[in-house]
Every structure is written in C-alpha cells, then in structure tokens.
Design goal:
Elements: H1 2-19, H2 23-35, E1 43-47, H3 49-52, H4 57-60, E2 66-68, H5 76-81, H6 83-86, E3 94-98, H7 101-106, H8 112-130, E4 135-138, H9 150-165, E5 171-174, H10 201-211
Helix pairs in contact: 8-9
Length: 217
C-alpha cells in the first residue's frame, strides 16, 4: 500500500508538471523571493535562456539594479502563463524581454505573425497591470543552429519592431541581428558556445553595448 501511495504521488506530480511546464523553475523563483525578495522598482529581465545564462548581467550593468526572472526553454506563451509570478510582483520601472526563438523552434507551424501575436498579448497584459512601464524587446538573434528558421524569425522581429515603433517612449525594439552577422550575412559562429545556440562572453558583450544606452537609471 505504501508503494502504491508513492507511485500515485509521482504520477500526480508528473501530471501537474506536464500540465504546467516550467513550474519547477517558477517555484524556485518564488522560493527565492520568500527568502529574500529583491524589491520593487528595478529593471526586470524576462524571457528565455539567452537571459537565463547571462550570469554576469548585473556586473555588465553595474550602475543599474537588475532582477533576472528568465527561464531557459520558455516561449512567449510560457512567460505570459507565469506573468503573475515573474513580472507583476516586482513592479519594475522597466522590463527587458528576450523571447520568441523557442516559439519558432518548437513548432514549425508558428509563423512570425504568431510570434508577434503572442508578444502583443504579453505586452497588453503588462500594460493592463503595470500601466506605462517602459518595455524593451531585444530582437531574436541569428542563432547558427536555427539558421534554417531565419525567415520566420526575421518576420517576427519586423512585426514586433513595427508595433513598438508606435509606442514612442514606452516601447522599444532593439535589434542584435546585424551585429551578430559576418560580412557575407551568415551568423558569427565565434559568438556562440558549442551548441551554436547560446552565446559566449563575446556575444554578451555585443548585447551589453546595444542594451545599455536604453536602460533607465
């Protein structure tokens, strides 16, 4: 009977995890906050692994207070799903988003337009809950391992950029695309680690130079 109870608990845990992807990561954030809440009114980084793996993000922006709540593998749908946990409690003075690559890579039917619609939903939710907090979207990068998906990625970037251009001071699109390409238009492999998806320190140096001028002190 005891073994059956253990099996039942494991099955239920797996079912919940499947129904709520990334719940482990979000729960870890909440536990961390319960021990030491980072406070409100800071710059919030959210999105997928390119932000998650930016371990030196605070050191790269020493004059700014950064809260990083990105989790690897996430799509825009996932970020929106957990917005009550990873965005709104911090009442940030600015939100920096990097997401969308996994939307494209995870489903061949996801077009650039769908990526944009998912971003628009997240943007609208943030506006409804946090008013006119400035939002910066860092455009999807040209990852070598996902180069065959570039048409959909470029389309998504263009749609989001066009949308944010209309938002003036409260919305900004930052492109990292051209800065990460060779003269022949191919991705700069030397900016990435072995998986050809995630960046090394040289890649993050490029991002730091592009993002810093738009951060709010």
């Amino acid at each position: 009977m005891k073994h059956l109870k253990v099996i039942f608990v494991l099955v239920m845990f797996c079912a919940v995890a499947q129904a709520q992807p990334f719940i482990k990561e979000v729960t870890a954030f909440k536990k961390q906050d319960s021990i030491s809440f980072p406070g409100t009114g800071k710059i919030l980084f959210i999105g997928s692994s390119s932000f998650t793996l930016w371990k030196d993000v605070q050191n790269d922006f020493p004059e700014y207070q950064i809260v990083n709540r990105a989790f690897g593998g996430s799509t825009l749908l996932d970020v929106t799903r957990y917005e009550q946990d990873i965005i709104f409690p911090y009442k940030p003075k600015q939100i920096i988003i990097y997401c969308g690559e996994n939307d494209v890579a995870g489903d061949s039917t996801v077009t650039g337009k769908i990526v944009f619609e998912r971003f628009k939903k997240l943007y609208t939710d943030i506006r409804s809950n946090l008013g006119n907090v400035p939002i910066v979207f860092v455009g999807m990068k040209p990852s070598p391992s996902r180069w065959q998906m570039r048409a959909r990625t470029i389309e998504g970037n263009k749609r989001i950029e066009k949308f944010l251009k209309k938002k003036k001071n409260n919305g900004k699109f930052l492109s990292v695309w051209n800065a990460m390409l060779n003269a022949d238009g191919t991705p700069r492999e030397e900016l990435f680690i072995g998986d050809r998806l995630h960046m090394n320190k040289d890649g993050y140096k490029i991002w730091q130079k592009i993002i810093q001028p738009y951060l709010i002190k």
